[in-house]
Design goal:
Keywords: DNA condensation, DNA-binding. With 91 residues, the chain is an alpha+beta fold. It contains three helices and five strands; from the N terminus they run H-H-E-E-E-E-E-H. The protein has a three-stranded antiparallel β-sheet. A two-stranded antiparallel sheet has the order 3-4. Strand 1 and strand 2 form a beta hairpin. Helix 1 crosses helix 2.
């Protein structure tokens, strides 16, 4: 399912116009993105949580030249599914 299909499903289930569903979805995604950028954790009870994980700097290897390179430390967003979501998908 892509974003357009998701918007169509949300509009249908919530009885909204596609334009309103798109605005709601974009507002939700922007809010989650902004919270993660500020270092906050976003928890949606029954669905899951979004948070930032820090990755330490490490040594890697250039596959072309086999030369060692340093990979810098980064922060990456992660999603952890909640119990209700896990249970629903497992059926």
């Amino acid at each position: 399912m892509n974003k357009t299909e998701l918007i169509n499903q949300v509009a249908e289930r919530a009885g909204l116009s596609k334009k309103d569903a798109e605005q709601a979805l974009n507002a939700m995604l922007d809010t989650v993105s902004d919270a993660l950028a500020q270092g906050d954790k976003v928890q949606l009870v029954g669905f899951g949580s979004f948070e930032i994980k820090a990755r330490d700097a490490r040594m890697g290897r250039n596959p072309k030249t086999k030369e060692p390179i340093e990979i810098p430390a980064t922060k990456a967003p992660v999603f952890k599914a909640g119990k209700a979501l896990k249970d629903r998908v497992a059926k």
